[in-house]
Amino acid sequence: MVLAIEWLDDPAPMIRLIDQTLLPGTERYVDVTTVDVLVESIRHLVIRGAPALGAAGALGVALAMAQAGRDKWDAQRLDREIDRIRDARPTAVNLAWGVSQVRESVPSGIGTVLGLARQLVAGDEAANRRLSRHGADWILAHVARDKIRVVTHCNSGALATSAWGTGYGIIHELNQRGRLGLVYADETRPLLQGARLTSWELLQDGIEHVVQADSAAASTILRGLVDVAIIGADRIAANGDTANKVGSVGLALACQRAKIPFVVAAPSSTVDLAVARGDDIVIEERDEDEVLCFAGLRTAPAGARGFNPAFDVTPHDLISIVVTEHGVAETATNTDPDLLATTAG
Q1: What is the mean pLDDT of the chain?
Q2: CATH number, residue 225
Q3: Is it the case that residue 336 has pLDDT exceeding 60?
Q4: Of the residues 123, 148, 171, which one is the last residue of a structural domain?
Q5: Are residues 104 and 236 in the same domain?
Q6: How far is CA 253 from the centre of its chain?
């Protein structure tokens, strides 16, 4: 299984990332030894996906401490650099969560922080596997079909996590149980995480799939070609509203019309009980050139302006269930603000 992120001690303390901007054509790794490079890698999506960003946050604190020792930073400078890591992507709560899991241990030294970060990384895979079993169990109990046909959006596999995957992990689990049919992978404009990353992982796992344009997804659902939609999430509000890659809410609307389940899968660390509802989630807006250009060539007329929100928010009443490693929360008919408290662990 590919590792999106890992810590290496030799020849120097570093975080090794697979460069997801180059997949599937080139499998290249980036050895990150400075906070500047880590923040740039996060912002430019060399690493992305909620659980993987959580790992980057925790390991990033250890990286900052290693650089502080080399460059003779004082405590105030170290704090500022850790803040830069925490704030590199505002919508993805796991990044800040990963930093917060280890930050209080900074006075105890880099060995303690690194140990905690490694525990977080190891725990992510175990949590993802539990999540996947919960999600597969629920789907098989609610979809009366031998081979489950799935549509998914963006990438929520091993590349988006420390290992295994969340939404993709459920797909993988269904496949291992012999209950998976065809997977429709949305291409995920404008950066094509579905076409480049999810399809690459599906090929690695030998899973039958097709890549479709995002604009085809609603029709695919309404034509009765799929039985369930499964996506990940970057932040989940207390009432069950979820933020995920832009284009997700369109799938949810189509699933509601078609009366098929819309499943959101994410680790409990993605549940932010301090955010009451989706309207309170800050939506990251990225460079307009991502939608005005393709492969370095401008596709829109000179002078046209771009609008490029990286995420959208799906209201809880369009979501059948939210799945975490702790179990399943049914959200569509429940607006209790404490809905996800148990599921969040």
Answers
A1: 95
A2: 3.40.50.10470
A3: no
A4: 123
A5: no
A6: 21
**Are 10 and 117 in the same domain?**
yes
Please report the pLDDT score of residue 345 as a whole number: 56
Show contacts of 333-342: CB within 8 Å, 24+ apart. 334/240, 335/239, 335/240, 336/239, 337/238, 337/239, 337/276, 338/238, 338/273, 339/238, 339/239, 339/240, 340/236, 340/238, 340/240, 340/271, 340/273, 341/238, 341/273
Residue 333 has pLDDT above 60, yes or no: no
Tell me which residue has tokens 């599937």.
Answer: 24
What is the set of active-site residues?
234
Q: How far is CA 329 from CA 38, 112, 270, 308, in A?
A: 35, 35, 14, 31
Residues 186 and 324 in one domain: yes
Q: What gap in Å lies between CA 170 and CA 130, rounded to an integer?
A: 10
pTM for this prediction: 0.92
Both tokens of 91, joined, read: 């919508």
Q: What percent of the chain stands above pLDDT 90?
A: 92
Report yes or no on 92 lying in a domain.
Answer: yes
Domain count, the chain: 2
Rounded to the nearest 10 degrees, the angle between the axes of helix 93-103 and helix 75-86 is 150
Q: Is 117 in the same domain as 147?
A: no
Range of the domain at 79: 5-123
What pLDDT is attached to residue 36? 98
